[in-house]
Specification:
Helix content is 67%, strand content 0%. It is mostly helical. The chain has 2 domains: 1-72, no CATH class; 81-127, no CATH class. α2 (14-30) packs across α4 (58-70) and α3 crosses α4.
C-alpha cells in the first residue's frame, strides 16, 4: 500500500480517506459473490491493519459499500467534504435525494451544521 495513503487514512486527510473508502466499497461490492462475510472480513482486517476499529467497523464498511453504489463513478469533487457528510447522505436511502443534497452542499460550500439543517428541513421536498 502507498505509504502516504496508509499514514493519512487515520489522520483524517480527506482526499485519501474518501477515495480509500470508495475503493473499499467497490471491493466489497465486487467480491460479494466470492467470499462469505466479506464485509466482516474486511472490517476485521482493516481494523487490525490500521488499528482503527471505528473507521472500519462493520457498519462503516456497509456505508462504504452503499457510497460506492450511490456514486459508482468516483469524482474528485467528492474529496471536498468529509466522510460524515456522506454517512448522512447514505442514511437518506434514496440515491436521487442524496445526489441533490450533495450538489447543493458542494456548490454552496456548506459547513456540516448547515448541511444537517438542510436535510432536517427536507429542502428536497420543498422545491
Amino acid at each position: 500500500m502507498n505509504e502516504k495513503i496508509s499514514n493519512n487514512i487515520i489522520g483524517g486527510d480527506i482526499i485519501y480517506k474518501i477515495n480509500f473508502f470508495w475503493l473499499i466499497g467497490k471491493f466489497v461490492y465486487d467480491k460479494r459473490n466470492y467470499s462469505d462475510n466479506i464485509i466482516e472480513k474486511c472490517s476485521n482486517y482493516l481494523s487490525y491493519y490500521f488499528g482503527d476499529s471505528y473507521s472500519f467497523s462493520y457498519n462503516n464498511i456497509l456505508h462504504m459499500r452503499k457510497f460506492y453504489l450511490f456514486f459508482p463513478v468516483y469524482l474528485n469533487k467528492f474529496e471536498n467534504i468529509s466522510w460524515d457528510y456522506y454517512v448522512d447522505l447514505l442514511k437518506l436511502n434514496n440515491q436521487d435525494i442524496a445526489k441533490f443534497y450533495l450538489k447543493i452542499c458542494l456548490f454552496c460550500d456548506m459547513d456540516y451544521s448547515n448541511f444537517k439543517k438542510m436535510i432536517n428541513n427536507n429542502i428536497y421536498f420543498s422545491i
